[in-house]
């Protein structure tokens, strides 16, 4: 693992104020141009199967198309799928009943990977405007996802600390 990622959890906690300040003042167009390369770089250095913090500690939102697709894949009625696996959170979104995700298997592999929710497909949002448009989410994600941490650190390095 690179020096940038050494002790990343501690560094991320220490850099939260810096991330907030950066995300508030960043040139959004410039950042959006840099994201694809930084996203690819981060995924080239970090193996999600070695981490799976997102699946172990958080839940994606399960939107109606996700529920339809996954329940069909599992050969369950939508109501049965919801009853067995999901709860409504305080925002009114369906999320898994507990952590880790019930679909997280041995070796940190997802048992419904091809059918996973759109939130899972998109996470950690390091190649899209969510990173800059939802700074609080980005900051939170940087505390448990080394890819978000890596991208933020590289953005700040490239654009001045």
The residue-averaged pLDDT reads: 94
How many individual β-strands?
2
Radius of gyration over alpha carbons? Answer: 17 Å
Q: What letter string, H or E per element, gives the SSE order?
A: HHHHHHEEHHHH
How does this structure look, described?
The chain has 161 residues and is mainly alpha-helical. The protein folds into two domains: 7-54 and 123-159, no CATH class; 61-122, no CATH class. It has ten helices and two strands; from the N terminus they run ααααααββαααα. α5 (64-73) packs across α6 (78-85) and α9 packs across α10 (146-159). The radius of gyration is 17 Å and the shape is elongated. The two termini are 23 Å apart. The model has no long low-confidence stretch (mean pLDDT 94).
Outline:
Helix content is 55%, strand content 4%.
Keywords:
161 residues; 4% strand; 2 domains; 10 helices; mainly alpha
Topology:
Blueprint: H1 8-14, H2 16-25, H3 28-45, H4 53-57, H5 64-73, H6 78-85, E1 86-88, E2 94-96, H7 118-122, H8 130-133, H9 135-142, H10 146-159
Antiparallel strand pairs: 1-2
